[in-house]
Design a protein that fits this description.
This protein is α/β, with parallel strands linked by helices. The protein is built from eight helices and eleven strands. Strands 4, 5, 6, 9, 10 and 11 form a six-stranded parallel beta sheet that branches. Strands 2-1-3 form a three-stranded mixed beta sheet, with no helix packed on it. It is globular and about 45 Å long.
């Protein structure tokens, strides 16, 4: 299957996934860097976030075997809802890009982020990442966070547990080899979550991440429309969903070049989740 054919297949699946995705993302969780997540009422796009939580304090970890032996990290709790928001000081937001990496569009997005000194999250598909490992290496070098978006971008609610595990594990393996670490975040294609996805994600040490503002750039609505959705939905805690693959993403590339400096000029801090210490 060619990369451009992904768009046609995903549009065909989208109608059936919308209801499932809405149910899966109905709950909202505030991601507190130190205190952990706490359930809150599901926000509308652009709604104000609650009081920012205290930022995490980074602690140095020993690089040798000296000292008290380390204990095994506790397994992640199995969640029933994905994270929808981030918390931090002041006007904190997060930009996320799905379905890549695509050598036609991802480098331009990385260039724009680098120009403004901004980090973002990239939820990659294994079938795209395996042929573009150098882009994952660049994401690592430039401080971006890479998450797991399955291998072929299927509708997980129509798959059995073994199939879902294969989609997730294969993608994590490719990410680890090219990015340098296994992913700690997972996003279900189409936002269609089910119990197996949450359980398997926790088993693989990945937290579920959804979004607050959908740019709908996959519909190629026009650059101005994408810009308007981002700027109109901007608010503390917002997670923005865009795409860097799965079709013609030239509008997404151009939109980022416009709205990113506008967000920064408006006082927004674009961030990524802190990496959990093992």
């Amino acid at each position: 299957m060619t990369k451009d054919q992904l768009l046609t297949r995903r549009r065909a699946l989208l109608a059936g996934a919308v209801a499932l995705g809405a149910a899966g993302t109905a709950g909202a969780l505030t991601l507190g860097p130190e205190d952990g997540p706490a359930p809150v009422t599901a926000p509308a796009a652009g709604a104000q976030a609650g009081r920012p939580l205290k930022p995490s304090a980074y602690r140095l970890q020993p690089l040798t075997g000296y000292g008290t032996p380390r204990t095994r990290a506790a397994p992640l709790a199995v969640r029933h809802e994905p994270f929808l928001r981030v918390s931090g000081r002041g006007r904190t937001m997060m930009l996320t890009f799905d379905d890549g990496p695509d050598p036609r569009y991802t480098p331009h997005i990385l260039d724009t982020l680098a120009e403004h000194g901004v980090r973002a999250m990239f939820f990659v598909c294994g079938e795209m990442a395996v042929d573009n490992k150098e882009l994952l290496a660049r994401m690592s070098d430039e401080g971006h966070v890479v998450g797991n978006h399955t291998w072929t971008h299927p509708l997980l609610t129509q798959m059995n547990r073994g199939q879902i595990r294969s989609e997730m594990e294969r993608t994590s393996d490719v990410i680890e080899g090219a990015y340098g670490a296994r992913p700690q975040w997972f996003r279900a294609p189409y936002g269609a979550w089910n119990r197996a996805a949450f359980q398997l994600g926790a088993e693989m040490n990945m937290e579920p991440m959804a979004w607050t503002v959908d740019t709908l750039d996959w519909t190629t609505p026009g650059t101005r429309s994408i810009i308007g959705r981002v700027e109109g939905g901007a608010a503390p805690g917002v997670v923005v969903l865009s795409h860097d693959a799965g079709g013609d993403r030239s509008q997404s590339v151009r939109a980022l070049r416009s709205y990113l400096p506008e967000l920064l000029d408006a006082g927004y801090h674009l961030t990524v989740p802190p990496r959990r210490l093992a």
